Amino acid sequence: MTLKSTWKERGVSIVSDGWSDPTRKPLINFIAAGGNAPLFLKAANCFGEVKDKVFISDLMKEVINEVGHHNVVQVITDNAANCKAAGEIIEGLFPHIYWTPCVVHTLNLALKNICAAKNTETNLETYKECNWITDTHGDGLAIKHFIMNHNMRLAMFSKFSTLKLLSVADTRFASIIVMLKRLKILRRGLQAMVISEEWSAYREDDVGKANFVKEKILDDEWWEKVSYILDFTKPIYDMIRFCDTDKPSLHLVYEMWDSMIEKVKGEIYKREKRALAEMSPFYDVVYDILVARWTKSSTPLHCLAHSLNPRFYSEEWLDGDFARVAPHKDVELSRERMKCFRRLFPSNDDHTKVMDEYAKFSLKTGSFEDLRCISEMSCKEPKHWWANYGAQTPLLQGLALKLLGQPTSSSCAERNWSTYAFIHSLKRNKLLPSRAVDLVFVHNNLRLLSRNSNEYETEKTKMWDFGGDKSDYYESGTDVGFLEMEELTLDEPDFESDIIVE
């Protein structure tokens, strides 16, 4: 069974992201994502075009028609205004397809609102409560720049630590957290450096800055602030890492947002030594930011996917927290689920039937009364559960098998740019965009075929694709002998029997 042939039953998400190649030509990437196998479709050259909602929606429509609109569950992009407007056009043309903003982008924006609060008239309360985070991060950047921007200081630091300081691009997700995490790991090495004889003997041009760096590195109170930031943002960072993959997560995101916010509250109240019933001005600001971001990015599709996850009806899950209720008893979930059913099943007969099927499923009646069926709700992989027990509710089963296999982020589209950069690098910059796109298509999809073959797990070249397509890895002289031994084929039918279909 080929990957494309599974889309009819399992559904597929069209994932898109923008980028500029080494010659500054803007490109828009399109990936078909479903299960754990993102398939590169095309990259559109937007040079000389105005990337407004009409232009982007036309590209989306072309890709959707190529894949088959009946196979597409959702279109995932970042949260830019033109992408949102283009998504609304697509929803108008194809009512059964939802535009879904990337959850990882949403979480990253929330982190930026918290950790880099702007001092504006409309943001005074947030800035008042969060500016200490901005100041702490600024001090961390000053320490990093002071050491890394001078080879003598960097050489001195390398004698006290085997790990390196990181230069994290602002465009990277959770860049502030990544940088502070590394600083905390290097704390002992940094402190050993500034109290060493070499530091004292080194003649520094900027004595004031050197003294500032030494003071901060030896300041336990400053390190406590770093630890506090890492502790209360850890639930957000963990959710970013979980969603920043190709794995299905559409059916998990709604519950993860609730759990993440509760964990953030727990860390803040623990540090402030408050009872949970008390008010915390700092937590109120953080809570408002997280809820505002979720409200902007959540869609009825998140609610429906959550409602079709059998785990959330199990006694084990419901008993885990007194505040939990089953999805069919939740007012917001029920309202959004009804919207979805009406859009996805416009026929009155189908709508009535799927509503009846959902009632049987949520109330555990009919074929869902079986004790084994109920006991496996909490432990069985959701798609497997529906495959085993959903045959008597065919409309709901078909919908569940599609929604439970979809991602929630545009990460696969963004990671694909490393493949493009590998092929069309500064050293190989004379390729026409169309030629480069063809090479990316071949390279990326041969990798997909190879990773899904039996040989990838068993032969001498097993797990060869561990480094991705970072061009510095291939051009640094690193031994990539295993990669060179891998034999790939352009003939997809010859590979079909080796593809693992989960």
Automatic annotation (TrEMBL):
GO terms for molecular function: protein dimerization activity. SUPFAM superfamilies: Ribonuclease H-like (SSF53098). Residues 381-446 form the HAT C-terminal dimerisation domain. Pfam families: Dimer_Tnp_hAT, DUF659. Residues 3-126 form the DUF659 domain. PANTHER family: OS06G0658400 PROTEIN (PTHR32166:SF81), OSJNBA0013A04.12 PROTEIN (PTHR32166). This is DUF659 domain-containing protein. It comes from Microthlaspi erraticum.
